[in-house]
Each structure stands twice: as C-alpha cells, then as structure tokens.
Amino acid sequence: MQLYEIRKIKTIRLTQNLVKVIVVLLALIAIVLLYKQISYHPAPTEHHPIHHYSGYYVTAPEIPKELTFAGERVPLENFDVYESLDRELLVNTYFHSQTILSIKRAFRFFSIIEPILKKHQIPEDFKYLLVIESNFTNSVSPAGATGFWQFMKSTAQKYGLVITEEIDERYHLIKSTEAACKLLRDLYAYHKSWTLAAAAYNAGSGNIDKVTSLQKTNNYYDLHLNEETARYIYRILAMKIIMSNPKKYGFYIPAKTKYFPVPTEKIPIDSSISDLAQFAIDQGVNYKILRIFNPWLRKYKLTNSERKTYVIELPKKEYRDINQLIKLLNIDSLELISDSIH
Fold it and tell me: Are residues 218 and 105 in the same domain?
C-alpha cells in the first residue's frame, strides 16, 4: 500500500513537471510567433520600395541624381552640397505635420501664385521659396517680416505695397506676389543668377556682395554663409523634391483632404466703410470670413478719403460648404489625374 502511494505521488509530480515544461514551451513558441508577426515586414525591393517608413523600417529619403533650381544646375557631386541637401530633405520628410500642411495648402494657393510668376517670367521654382518663407500663412517674423512673402516694411513700400494703420498689403496674396516678382527680377538683373537672387532675397544684396567679394566667388554652392542663408536654397530644393512627388517620399494625401480653392466674388470699393463687420453681414457673410479672404484689412473700418479703388473678395455663399466645393472641383476625378497634384 505504501509502495502504491509512493508511485502515485511520483506519477503526479512527473505529470505536473511535464505540464509545466509544456506550458513553458508553448509560452516560448507564442512569444516567438508574436515577435515575428509584429516585427516582420518584407524588405524593400525595386518593385515594392519602402521610401520612408513602413512597419519598423525607417530609411533615408532618396536624393535625385540630377537636380536644378530655376534652371541652374545643383552640383550634387560635391559632398558638401549633397550632405546639405540630404539634411533638409531629412528634416522636411520627417517633419510630417508641417510638410503635410504645405501639400494641403498648396492645392489652394499654387493656382493663384503660378500664373503671376509666369507673367513676370520668374521661374516656377520660386513658388517653393514662398513655402519655406511662410508655409502659406500670413506670419510675422521676430524682425517684422510680414505676409506670405515675408516683406519688411521698407522693401514692401519700395515695391508699391500700401501700409497704413488700416491697410497692410503685405497680407494681400496677389499684390504681395506681384511685388515679390518685381523684387526677384531686380535681384536677378543685379546678381545674374537665380540661385544668388534667392539667397539675396533672404540675406539682402549687400550681404551677398560682401561675402562674394571676400571669398572671391559668386557661386552660391561655394560660399561660406551664415547658417540661415547657407540652408536657404537647400530648404527650397527639399520642398521642391517632396512636393513634386509626395507619394515617392511617403506622403499620401487624398485630394478630398486638401484645402480647396474657394470661388470668390470681387467687390470694388471706392469709398470709406465705417463698419466692416456690418459690411460683411450686408454681404451675407461675417467679419471672420471677411478677414480670412481680405487679411490686408487690419481694422474694423476702411477710411478711404482719397477714394482709391480697393477690391474686396468674398466667397460665393454656397461654397463655404465643403461638400459643395468637392462637387464643384470634381475631386474624385482629380484623384485619377496625378499623384503629385497640389
């Protein structure tokens, strides 16, 4: 009887140990399978590239083999040029929120800017200068540069923009773009290079003259510059590369999620308006909408003693509704036109 009990106890212990071993093995197998499931992703191939990140892959964005700015060749064979562009391409590729906003906003604003650049014979690449200057916002820098094109007050007035207590045309997209084109033409005529013209837009012609004289070269890519100007052209180029082909660089932005151009009505005004809020209400909108479409109006009134003609733009009433905009623009068909449309 005692022998039987001893054998029974041994059998139970053996079974318990066996169960423990099986449980441990099953747990290990489960861990291995789970690890493979969450960590395995097919490696990038020629036909199925992973350009940036997919699963747990994070890669450096591809730098083009050839690149130009405003028709002028970028010497990517120089390691310093290559690495400077690589830095800005990395920054803008992985600064997701900012770059996504650029792509979304470009859908609305490039259609306004591009014809003005063309009219003034400014290379289209300069639309990306505006992107890095303000990202399509009427921002104000610590130094006081204002609007989409970041004009300082004196330069803005030199190129015909009106700035008073009630009006600041640096905030007027069309007029400020016209002024920027005139400035860029003058910079190109002086420096004989679109690349140097862009650098001078940032640093000023005097500063560019000084460094080109001291360093005995007028090639932007050979100049030792302050950090902001040294990065300036490469930042423009990075946005050109990404925004010209967003999907290649990991940005999948459906047309329906972009910011649509809004049809507007133009209202000429050649007299004073004592109450812009009431004026907006009389037009069937509100003061907020009035300011969104006319940010150059800076106060609640417009004193126009000289009876100059100003044009106030307001959205057509039915198109504040985003669904109406989608129908108007036939967004579904736009998805089929081009992956790079913006």
Answer: yes
- Residue 186: both structure tokens together: 């003058």
* Closest alpha carbon to 249 in 236, 257, 240: 240
Q: Report the alpha-carbon distance of residue 177 to residue 173 in Å, rounded.
A: 6
Query: Domain for residue 200, yes or no?
Result: yes
pTM for this entry: 0.80
What CA–CA distances, in Å, run from 195 to 68, 145, 180, 243, 294?
10, 21, 15, 19, 32
Is residue 250 domain-shared with residue 296, that is, in the same domain? no
How many domains are there within the chain?
A: 2
Integer angstrom CA distances of residue 200 from 10, 141, 239: 90, 17, 19
Chunked mean pLDDT (size 10), the chain, 342 residues: 59 72 79 62 51 63 95 98 97 94 96 97 98 96 96 98 97 98 98 98 97 98 98 98 95 89 93 97 95 97 94 88 78 50 44
The amino acid that residue 194 corresponds to is W
Does 232 share its domain with 291? Answer: no
Q: Which of 266, 196, 200, 249 shows the shortest CA–CA distance to 89?
A: 249
The candidate with the shortest Cα–Cα distance to 237, out of 195, 184, 187, 201, is: 195
Please give the residue range of the domain that contains residue 274. 264-336
